Here is the input.
Amino acid sequence: MFRPKAFFSQLKQGNHFRLTILLQLIRWTAMCCVTMPHFYLKNPPSLFPVPFGIELQQYRFFEIFAYFPYGLFIIVVITNMTWLYVKKYTPQSISISKVWEVIAIAYFAPWLPTLVLDNFLLTYDLAIPFIIVPLHFAVVGIESALVAIGLQQVFNMPANKAWLIGLGGGFIFLALAGIVVR
Here is the structure.
């Protein structure tokens, strides 16, 4: 992923659908098994008020179990939105599984350091909105950029359209993650 253009050019050639499903399963399982329990135990301040009058600690407990299916849901929504727009802007036939491959890879690689960083910040009581929010915005920005590069390389999309779609996916991620993550 340090050479995204070359990487996505290779992705264009083969079928990596099963691998990308595995990568997303790893991502959301790790969140549920490592990061979310750590949030529950440390209970840092919440970025947004917890809905429905639930206590923050109880909400964090529910996040442990809800984050896996909700995370996959977010990636599926981004994939579908991307597919709908990509097929408008490219002359060739577009398979949704190839769009999934681009999205799944782009939203996996930049996340890896946050698994370590989030848990480091939680361990040392530094997981405060002032620190963690800019970090995650930066990661989503990188993920969006990788989507744009992937769309250009895999589907030969014009750069301006690919970047708009990549940013749109990033905004969807932030909006949907913001609904659940506190």
Summary: The mean pLDDT is 91. Residues 4-180 form one domain. Helices lie at 4-13, 17-42, 56-89, 96-106, 111-123, 129-155, 159-180. Residues 50 and 138 are 24 Å apart (CA to CA).
